[in-house]
Amino acid sequence: MKARITITALVALLVFCAGYAALFIAPDEATMHAIQRIFYFHVASWNAMFCAFFVAFYASVAYLVTGKRKWDALGVSGVEVGVICCTSGLITGPLWARPVWGIWWTWDAKLTSTFILWLLFIAYLLLRGLVEDPEKKASLSAVFAIFASLDIPLVYLANRLWRTQHPQPVIAGGQGSGLDPTMSKVLLLCLFAVFCVMILVLLDRYRLELLRNEAAELRYEIESRGLDAADNAATPALQKGAQ
Amino acid sequence: MKNFEFLFTAWMVVWAVFFVYEISVAKRITQVREEIARLKQQLQQR
Prior knowledge:
The complex is a heterodimer of chains A (about 240) and B (about 45).
Chain A lengths: L1 H24 L12 H29 L2 H33 L7 H22 L3 H16 L1 H11 L19 H62 L1
Helix pairs in contact in A: 1-7, 2-3, 2-5, 2-7, 3-4, 3-5, 3-7, 4-5, 4-6
Chain B lengths: L3 H42 L1
């Protein structure tokens, strides 16, 4: 518990430093000026989302290979946290777009594929709520998560493959791309801060899923004991009836 | 600072989304822990 409090405090400090650096240390961008600073949280949200969905993809494959429940628990945790990061990115994007593009949203390849990704993983969470049998739920969820993950490379590559309203990548985007050295350092700090927050939340969500599994096992044990007790109570009555 | 309201809202949204979600997870953990304790008690009684 003490270690957990220390880690949370360190991450909170990191978040504060990242926020300070993004708002006050990073230089103004030449054309967009201050509003470009949304970039540091926006990109960090997407980075955390890609990591969370990768965890979900890996866990889903691992579940289908091994059939162990812990992978299913990690899979659903990755999806839920990924959806949270995606939601954050989908809100910060329009807040940046409105003053720069003059519109909140446009249906270009990048934005549309991202919105579809968000809908697919929302559908995953809804699907889990519809299936009662735990084995069936885990298998269906794993297959669906792998299917939904096919959209992830498309989201990443959309503005590289097609002309989009969304800007071309500034990092690893080929000739003419790149960031000012101070901007790069601030971005790295923000990426790390949001990544750490994502990991903390993911671990908590994973713990919750393991606890849910434990509760389900206990409920099953109580039910089976209840049935045993009912059988024991019924047997003498039957025997009496037979006599 | 021009467009400060957009910048501030974006900054708040990122952390608010994570914070609200973390609170909801912590709440659910507490509920499940309470349920586990109750179920264990039930098992001992049988």
